[in-house]
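Hey,
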Amino acid sequence: MTRPRTVPAKARRALALLLPAAVGACNLGPDYERPETAVPHTWNTAAPSAEAWPSLEWWKSFGSPQLDALIAEARSSNTDLAAAAARIQQADALARIAGAPLLPSVGANVNAGPTRRLNNLGKERHFTSFQGVLQASYEIDFWGKNRAALEAAEASASASRYDWQVVSLTITTSVATSYFQALGLQDELRVARDNLARAQRDLDGLVQQQQRGLVPQLAVVQQQTVVDGLAAAIPPLEQQLAVTKDALAILVGKLPEALELRAGSLLDLSLPAVRPGLPSELLLRRPDVQQAEAQLISANANIRVARAQFFPSFGLTADGGVSSLLLANGAMPVLGVYTFSASITQPIFEGGSLTGQLELSKARYQELLQDYRKAALSAFGDVEDALAATKATADQQATQEKAVASARQAYQMSLDAFHGGTATILSVLVSESTLFSAESARVQARLAHMQALVGLFRALGGGWKA
């Protein structure tokens, strides 16, 4: 009876030392960890105590059916959104390609045809060969290289989805801003035309009084200057409105001539109350921050891929099938054929390409790390700026409303005093000009507040959450 061979003590000690190293080599790390980011405890600008976040359909809080329709068109027809959706499809396809090496590859090879051979005596031998073989190969992912490549591709696919959300939020806010701009220009045109009509009436009255010798010619000339200035301000406003309509048409995916924009006013819109939530939740509600993190995860996985290139790769190959020869005097029996082999490939000298690729991957990770930190800081800064703008424009709008009321009262008092003979025409012209400026400034203040609200919705992520 033969005694079983035992492993020498030195060999066992060597195996004990090599096994942990081999197991440790299977994890090339580093595992991804979300970078630490400073988060403010509260917002600098005073906000309501109730923490809340915008809804996903935040634009409906303005109460404009036309805005709702425009945004719906943009979300279905905008070219930038369609391009972002195509990028998602590309990223998904790349992820499928990256995952393929984790599975065996199987192929079939069938051939048949005449063959001519010479034996040792120089005699020809003719026959027809038939062969069918099923081939399979598989690379053992011992170091996790293929798995890391798949993780990198899947993270890139996630980044493309976040990119679509970024584009969607940008398009939505751009439509809202352009629409409010169009309404604001319509309001300014109405104010300008009303002021022009009022100034023309005053001019007509002054002309009659001048003809009766009640006012000097200078007063008529001064009022004519006011009328001409108001008339000259209308064409630029009409041009700005046309340009804004064209930009809005492009956002919703239409030709400018196909866009029908109904008349409206900023005064017809509601002013939603936007309440920001806790700063600690903001990073999960900003798709641009999540996109930056997904790219960082992908770069981290690519470092593991680059490290694995230094180590040997292990492959298995197997072929199996049938083969037969048809000779001139008969056929040979069908034979089963198969092969099985294992391979190890170890890079020895690559001219520094492997080291360069690893260094490139690490540098790319560091670049994207700074991009992520910048995105996080910018997110907090955007909210702070938007909160400050919302508060400032609300105060400005309230003040401007008072200014219009005061200017209208002053104009009426100066006009009454002039007709009563206790004031000069100069006081009427000054108060009239002040009223015109105040009414125009009121429209601009309301537009600024509406745009600030849209900016706050965008800074808060538009109701989106990872």
